[in-house]
Amino acid sequence: MPPDAPKSPDFSARWAALRNIPPFLAMVWRAAPGLTLAMVALRLMRAVMPVAMLWIGKLIIDQVVALSGTPGPETLRDWWDSGLADTLIWLVALELGLAVAQDVLGRLVAYVDALLQEKLVIDISIRLMDHAAGLDLASFEDASFQDRLDRARRQTMGRIPLVNQVMQQLQDVVTVASFAAGLILYNPWLVVLLAVALIPSLLGEMHFNARSYALNHARAADRRERDYLRMIAATSETAKEVKIFGLSPWLRDRYLTLARRFYVENRAIQRRQLSVMAVLTALGTLAYYAAFLWIIARTLTGTLTLGDLTFLSGSFLRLRGLLEGLLSSFSSMAGQAMYLDDLFDFFTAVPAIASKPDAIPVPVPIRQGFRFEDVGFRYPGREAWAVRHMTLDLHAGETVALVGENGAGKTTIVKLLARLYDPDEGRITLDGRDLRDYDLEELRAAIGVIFQDFVRYAVTAAENIAIGRIDEREDRPRITASAERALADQVIAKLPLGYDQMVGKRFARGLDLSGGEWQKLAIARAYMRDAQLLVLDEPTAALDARAEYEVFQRFRDLTQGRIALLISHRFSSVRMADRIIVLEGGRVQDQGTHQELLSRPGRYRELFELQAQGYR
Ligand SMILES: Nc1ncnc2c1ncn2[C@@H]1O[C@H](COP(=O)(O)OP(=O)(O)OP(=O)(O)O)[C@@H](O)[C@H]1O
């Protein structure tokens, strides 16, 4: 066995997973109380049908034997007239009625089950989305969290039929109880014999289910990688690079290596299961025939009637099937319930960044501005500080530019301002109060950020802009005004359906845009937002120098009276800011106006000259 082979969770863990069933049922109940009640009622009715039908079958046979043994009417007509067969006729009619009812109930159960599962899928999906929405950005950037989320999502959706399984289980238990009651009336040992013979196969089933779960659990990361490989091997976003770099064979091999590992481990489990379970199931068959012999012997000696023989052998046959099914599905139910751990586990994750109970409202307008006071921050799981001893001000009404080389900490400052992360050292204040004192939702509403890796949504052009302030998505004048300010109106004018054109290449009716055109749409989101602090974090890299200059110029003019933060590597754009902050290695290296910074030796002048040289 390879050293990292999954260990089988022990039986107690498996039984412990059954504790998930009540909260799961509570979820089902919450999702659809009426349907749940209907389901239980239908299942209970179905549960007692088999024993009732078999018992009536026994009565019919006993009647037939009794009537055929006594001398009486010759023809069917005589039988009818004599009234001797009345009981028999009623019994047959009853049996027929039950058979019809059983069929109808079966269909109703399937119908209610389909509706119930659908409702549950919707309910759980919404709860997953709601919960994920409240979690920290740090969680989403953490790979082990991604595995957990992935398991919760996929495994839980795969567990929806569990509701049917639990209900079936309930029905079967009631059926078994009714059959067992019948058997016990004849001889209690018959039931004991059955149960004892089935226990080994129950334990076997449980063991193998636990192993399969352990394998799936341990390989969640692999599976995510496999999905990822499959995705990059065949999507519109990646097709260009995959072809040009000839990546297909490499992706394929990588996929195969991961898939084979899982296949081999899974095959080993399946093989063992095959051999062990064959032996254990044979034990159950032996017990069944032992009991059958006993019943035949008793009927031959006259202790049991022919009707009894039919009822007992019928009961026995059904009970054996039922118990076997019940035990294995109980064990598989426990196995399925283990997957619910992932779901409940996910729901226990709580965000570290949240509003305090006594959070204060964000000032409107902001009077002084934001201030970083000796702020230090490290990304979770990283040794190096992304920013350290950072002290800077963003004054109300000011346009500030952040410059610095790759990795200098520019984007990190923006994330800290929006409280996507909290600092590890020092503090950030807004009008003198710690950011953590303010209501988080209000704070985020007061800030508009367009990141360099903004999302290209596969929705209409209008909706792509409205995303900046989604509550106002019906406000077409506001959308068109934002588009004009961001120069996106020219892009939209060229689209066949204008603002209602679906963009992006994910859907057939979507029309893809150039990098710069996407950026203009994204920048329009900033105007849509109308926030007190507006940040453009390099979403202009794909614009040509003139377009970026124009975008920034407008941005500065149109954000008068607010705080505007620009991040760019182009000095031609940066120079228009009221103040430029030069970052280096996560610290403020220098700051001032363009002229001031050029007038003294330093990083800014050095970088400026480097860029200027490129244009000479
Ligand atoms: N999500 C993350 N997890 C871990 N480390 C990160 C993460 N994002 C950034 N870093 C690290 O933090 C440091 C600062 O990154 P930041 O993104 O703030 O730089 P930047 O100045 O915006 O760079 P660029 O000009 O390339 O956009 C870098 O060393 C980077 O590797």
Summarize this entry quickly:
This protein has 616 residues and is of the alpha/beta class.
What does this structure look like?
Strand 4 and strand 5 form a beta hairpin. The chain contains 23 helices and ten strands. A six-stranded mixed beta sheet has the order 6-7-8-3-9-10, with helices on both faces. A four-stranded antiparallel beta sheet has the order 2-1-4-5, covered by helices on one side. With 616 residues, it is of the alpha/beta class. It has two domains: 268 residues, Up-down Bundle (ABC transporter transmembrane region fold); 220 residues, P-loop containing nucleotide triphosphate hydrolases (Rossmann fold, 3-Layer(aba) Sandwich). 64% of the residues lie in helices and 9% in strands. Bound molecules: adenosine-5'-triphosphate. Adenosine-5'-triphosphate binds next to helix 14.
Please give the alpha-carbon distance between the first and last residues.
66 Å
In terms of quaternary structure, what is this? single chain
Name of the CATH homologous superfamily of the largest domain: ABC transporter type 1, transmembrane domain
Overall CATH class of the largest domain: Mainly Alpha
Strand content: 5-15%
Rg over CA atoms, rounded to whole Å, is 36 Å
Strand order of the largest sheet: 6-7-8-3-9-10
Structural classification: alpha/beta
The coarse overall form would be: elongated
Membrane topology: Multi-pass membrane protein
Protein name: ABC transporter ATP-binding protein
Domain ABC transporter: 370-610
Main location: membrane
